[in-house]
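Why Threonine ammonia-lyase? Reviewers of the renewal asked for a concrete example.
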Amino acid sequence: MTSPIPVTIDDIRAAHDRIRANIVRTPTFISKTLSDLTGATVYLKFENLQFTAAYKERGALNTLLLLDDEARSKGVIAASAGNHAQGLAYHANRLGIPSTIVMPTNTPTVKVVQTEGHGATVILEGDTFDAAYAHARELEAERGYTFVHPFDDPRIVAGAGTVAIEMLEDVPTIDTFITPIGGGGLISGMAVVAKAADHPVHVIGVEAELFPSMYNRIKGTQYPCGGDTLAEGIAVKEPGGITSAIVRELVDDILLVSERNLEHAVSLLLQIEKSVVEGAGAAGLAALLDHPERFAGHTVGVVLCGGNIDTRLLANVLLRDLARSGRLARLRIKLQDQPGALFNVARIFHEQRINIIEVYHQRVFTSLPAKGLITDIECEARDRDHLDRLIAALKAADYEVHPVELA
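Here is what the prediction returned.
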């Protein structure tokens, strides 16, 4: 780098002293089950237990506390439809600082209501984040607000880095951080702390395959950036300039994770740790599960950076994961349209102790002859082997059967 890193370990320690009384000192717990699964010693930092369920409070509060009296009286503004909006609004309200949040017009109502509930004035502007961002900067200039960037600000980076301060205080033996990357604020702060530690600590970033923006910038690739990712909290098309410089200098590598692995990680955290984590928050675990050989034998710290996930989406993720594991399935079975046909099939399900959840008959929209019948049966098994035994029994009884696979 041609210029010094704009955030130092002393900045992060000072930020921690500044904010520690008003944020949750979230626990860092070992996960024996995940350690057994991966071959690493896995510690999880539960930042989803912050009041607004995300680490973003740390940088927002640090920035607010550094404002002078004039800036506080005029108020702050941000462009965000996610965790940054809620973290900033919550702490601004608590400190008596007016806050304005500009969101795209298509922001889900629940996010608007939650942000307003923290005392912010919400302005809906534009169909995209870029449009909302541009409008926020216009209002900043017109009204004298202080713009609080979600990631590309040394004060935000310093606040985010306090996550790593706490992790190394609680577990000094951690030798690897696996950290999600969106704009790069969290990993930048954590990397500064890691490289100032009294022993080597590797820093591995994680992005969703659909949004490899920091990966492209650091590695010189040109992978497409866009799509409907579960990890919307790290779905950033352009990482920050400050954060990119820090990542280039201090981060050891960046890994990409698929949507399927993100879904699996969200599901595992709920099943194993009984903890609700959003897609972005589960990205670190997704990378660990996808590359166990890389981290085997290491003491790994994974930040569960947020827990704000829509309940309907969470339910869908859990059901899809059950389907991929063989515990839920939809089997497409070809029958003859005659009395007793379904009864005979159901008897095989009974013999194999497989529970039938739903039955769908299809007589009209099928390529079979008029007397043919397609039946989809949704069922519940103990595991993949149990399901395979059912399919084998159906085929042994001369039924044509095919599982309906997920993407």
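Residues 287 and 369 are 48 Å apart (CA to CA). This is the kind of structural detail the renewal will allow us to pursue systematically.
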